[in-house]
User: What shape does this take?
Amino acid sequence: MGELDKLEFVKPADIERRSFEIISKELGDKCLDARNELVVKRVIHTTADFDYADNLVFSENATAIGVQALKAGCSIVTDTQMAASGINKRVLARFGGQVHNFMQDADVAAEARERGVTRSAVCMERAAALNKPLIYVIGNAPTALVRLYEMLQEGAMSFPPQLIVGVPVGFVNVVESKELICNLDVPHIVARGRKGGSNVAAAICNALLYLASGDARE
Amino acid sequence: MGELDKLEFVKPADIERRSFEIISKELGDKCLDARNELVVKRVIHTTADFDYADNLVFSENATAIGVQALKAGCSIVTDTQMAASGINKRVLARFGGQVHNFMQDADVAAEARERGVTRSAVCMERAAALNKPLIYVIGNAPTALVRLYEMLQEGAMSFPPQLIVGVPVGFVNVVESKELICNLDVPHIVARGRKGGSNVAAAICNALLYLASGDARE
Assistant: This one.
């Protein structure tokens, strides 16, 4: 069993704390904005990718705005089932929020096909039609961000997003869709460039939820 | 709407094809093993991270072995709900397989706490106790890989894994746990180093499923 001796012994309950120690150490003297630091570190924890120390862009007070919204019972809408699945719904429910996701709705697929748009774009319209305060969390589809941008430009949303988490990943219009959001006067957390994903989206939501609970982690 | 003019017009149905074209172009003359190429490209598609062109390690014929297993109706066990959520279960079901995940079982948490091990380690034991051929897909917990390694070394599995997808992410024992699997005589696809995740795990499964269906994508 010699190979197993190479493992560091860390109790299950301590693995996350130890991981954050390593992340902090490796970030070294890199200057993170203290207001957003836990969000950035949780994304690095989720991806093992230190690029996010540079990629993540926060509008003024975005973290505090997201935390306040969650505390007030704000719900979250996601563009993928996978992001919905990764969000800590137990903590969210404690504040009164829930996760909405319309991607599996049969009529969303039909409508998207008929109109020649993506399902994700239709899902953003469904979310807006809920007519309630929401945090919009986009981990996959740039077309969802573009549709959000259009609706905001058209003044078509009775409840503009409390916060947009704009972290789609990919190669077609991903960079551009995120720049659209960065230029809007709406609170946002955006992963600039091509990188992102449902895991990053969920990690950002969970960081906000743990800050809202006053826990580093639960 | 001048900002929107910067977007490339791509029909929804063509976005993925266009993304793969860009990935192939940017890989340039980098030599990927043709047998595993579609798996590597799908992981890059999911992460926008070209590191995976170097990080992904395939044991001999791992892709073909995974594809054959899926075609024969092999089921998949994952260490996170998020990976389970990202796998194309419609295609999997067509071959007769399903996704198992034990992380939410109440007695798993209780047993893990009592024994001082992680829930993920207990989940691997639950999977082994199903006594059937399985593809083990680990996107989060190195402790799941370590427990798999131990069970295999102890000869404690009536059905050794058809394939191990070992792509946990993180900082504590992640690198080491993946090396344990690389040294085993069991078919495996491993993301060497710290990177990986539930999204990478699901992407690898989906690449195998699309190869099994004879489709580049569905």
